[in-house]
């Protein structure tokens, strides 16, 4: 693969990830202004924190990707590309939760 081809592939990947993030984000945040609200609700429900919840969701996809690397199969039938897109998005969400947490610590404002 040449550099230009990889650059085009990655740009398409990022565009796809952003589209999925927007679509799924609306569903999971229930239309609330806080796009990370679902991680906060789940964290509260299980006595954890939003960063840990996002990390567990990320690991679910990494586990699936690891299985694919070892077997070259996806038992669910879902293309592995979907898992890769989801893993990328969960890393971005994880980063946004950490950013939000650090910002709250700096400003003293929990939201």
Task: Write up what this structure looks like.
The protein has 4 helices and no strands. With 111 residues, it is mainly α. The chain has one domain (3-107). The chain is globular, with a radius of gyration of 16 Å. The mean pLDDT is 93.
Gyration radius, in Å: 16 Å
Please give the domain count: 1
Number of strands: 0
What string gives the helices and strands in order?
HHHH
Main sheet characteristics: none
Give the N-to-C terminal Cα separation: 45 Å
Strand content: under 5%
- The amount of helix comes to over 70%
Shape: globular
Oligomer status: single chain
Report the average pLDDT across residues: 93
Which structural class matches the secondary elements?
mainly alpha
Short structural summary:
Helices cover 77% and strands 0% of the residues.
What would the keywords be for this entry?
single chain, 111 residues, mainly alpha, 0% strand, globular
Sequence-ordered SSE layout with sheet pairings:
Layout (H helix, E strand, L loop, with lengths): L2 H26 L8 H10 L3 H22 L8 H28 L4
């Amino acid at each position: 693969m040449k550099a230009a081809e990889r650059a085009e592939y990655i740009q398409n990947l990022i565009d796809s990830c952003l589209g999925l993030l927007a679509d799924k984000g609306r569903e999971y945040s229930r239309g609330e202004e806080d796009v990370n609200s679902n991680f906060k609700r789940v964290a509260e429900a299980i006595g954890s924190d939003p960063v840990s919840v996002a990390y567990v969701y990320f690991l679910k996809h990494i586990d699936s990707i690891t299985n694919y690397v070892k077997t070259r199969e996806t038992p669910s039938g879902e293309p592995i590309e979907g898992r890769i897109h989801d893993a990328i998005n969960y890393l971005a969400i994880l980063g946004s939760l950490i950013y939000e947490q650090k910002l709250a610590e700096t400003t003293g404002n929990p939201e």
